[in-house]
Amino acid sequence: MKKETESLQIGHREQDHGHHHHERHGAKQPERFDPGKAALLDDPERFSYLPPAKILSLLNPPQNGIVVDFGTGTGTYAFELAKLRPDLNITALDEQEEMLARVKEKLEKNSNLKIYPLLVKTGALPKLDADRILALNVLHELGDEALQDIKQIIKSDGKILFVDWSSEIDRPVGPPRDHVYSIKEAAGRVKQFGFSIQKEERLQYHYALVCLAKP
Ligand SMILES: C[S@@+](CC[C@H](N)C(=O)[O-])C[C@H]1O[C@@H](n2cnc3c(N)ncnc32)[C@H](O)[C@@H]1O
């Protein structure tokens, strides 16, 4: 467990330090996730403190709905959601090709699942018309432009579920507390972009915000 903490704490590209990406303006932690640490995202231990069934119940997608896993990484939760709800159409979206390569590898063994990998560039997302967006462990990495992207790809009555590490909890896993938000800071940040909060919850190490894409 300790090993994972240390690795996650250095889970961001060293060469990025000091050169914050322009498109990440406003992000609490503006460095890109290091694809070299991708295996950490596949640690099944995560399911003990972030149960996929809990994520699904907070997300509450409609039958046959379009779900976007925004910043899917290796697709861990996209696959769990698809297994629990095979009716869903899940776009597994990421800005890093190396991360999506892992999703594609997994899909080769599970080609029956309705998971669609999508490589995106911040500020230039296609029209997706999502019923639900899951943003898991990623809000602290999202700059202003990426939050605008989320607004662009959601249906007018769609919902966004932000779940991220809490800065208020002393945790044996996850990024350092000063790289992430408290539930109040997170709520304040998403409200600035015109999202309204329908539901707030505290999980073992995370906070969860269920949001509408309108005030
Ligand atoms: C910490 S990982 C979490 C992955 C996954 N959600 C999970 O919990 O297993 C964050 C991922 O979000 C991606 N990401 C960060 N900002 C993004 C953006 N603006 N657009 C698309 N992907 C982004 C990163 O490339 C990385 O793969």
Overview of the structural elements:
With 215 residues, this protein is of the alpha/beta class. Helix content is 28%, strand content 23%. It has a seven-stranded mixed sheet, sandwiched between helices. Strand 4, helix 6 and strand 5 form a beta-alpha-beta unit. Helix 3 crosses helix 4. The structure holds S-adenosylmethionine (SAM). The site of S-adenosylmethionine has 20 residues, from helix 4 and strand 2.
List keywords for this structure.
215 residues, alpha/beta, Rossmann fold, seven-stranded mixed sheet, 7 helices, 7 strands, disordered N terminus, binds S-adenosylmethionine
Write the SSE topology.
Blueprint: H1 2-9, H2 46-49, H3 52-59, E1 66-70, H4 76-84, E2 89-94, H5 97-109, E3 115-119, E4 130-136, H6 144-153, E5 154-165, H7 183-191, E6 196-202, E7 206-212
Parallel strand pairs: 1-2, 1-4, 2-3, 4-5
Antiparallel strand pairs: 5-7, 6-7
Helix pairs in contact: 3-4
The structure holds S-adenosylmethionine.
S-adenosylmethionine binds next to helix 4 and strand 2.
